[in-house]
Predict the structure.
Amino acid sequence: MNIGGILAYLVSFVIMASIYAVFVLGLNVQWGYTGLFNIGIAGFFAVGAYTSALLTSPMPTGPLAQYVERIIGLDLPFGIGLVGAAFACGIIAFLIGFPTLRLREDYLAIATLGIAETIRLIFNNERWLANGPQGLVGLPQPLRGLVEPQNYNYVYLVIVLAIMALVYLAIEQGIRSPWGRVLRAIREDEISIWMSGRDIFGFKMQSLILGAMIMGIGGALYAHYVRAIQPSTFTPLFGTFIIWVMLMLGGSGNNKGAI
């Protein structure tokens, strides 16, 4: 029995499971606590992944540079990539939510689904943005120089678990606050909250933006783990519906279950 191979597989599995747990925690904020029907997770997944990749990778050089097109390559630290991914997704969530959150909830589902597919097609067709269908490869990984390449997954496992734990703790604190109680009340009985004078639109917008920013962080973590991203990765099945299934199995409105 190859113990080393089994251990390496388990570490890789836990890394990917933890990255997806971050996505599910973001969806839980939107759907589990507020009742926002977001079926465009793949779009935030893609924006988070590409934003972090473009911010943290240098511009290509050498003989192969002519075959790789990208709008920017700033070679910034990993942490800046995570923050940039979160903010980019937050901005897109605001742009989606502003015209849709005042309407019936199914409009948000239609909008997010359409935006997600639009984002994927933009990255696929606009080669100047991020190398089109070929995507980006060789993405940098944080703290990679500390260990031998074959042992790096152990380092990345610690990074991913730490970020997942921070996201979980932040959401738990928020949900137990008066802000979180309003979100749960909106999910249960929106009319009663409206009659009490609360700004339902504002709270929904905050939930949509926060969940999207968490999804952007998940996209960045995924990009730096696999080190290669292409538009074909961010399909509805891989980027949206699996995450919905995970939340349904774990239990909506339950962060531990989401993980």
Notes: Strands lie at 136-137, 228-229. The CA atoms of residues 138 and 251 lie 37 Å apart. The longest strand covers residues 136-137. The radius of gyration is 19 Å.
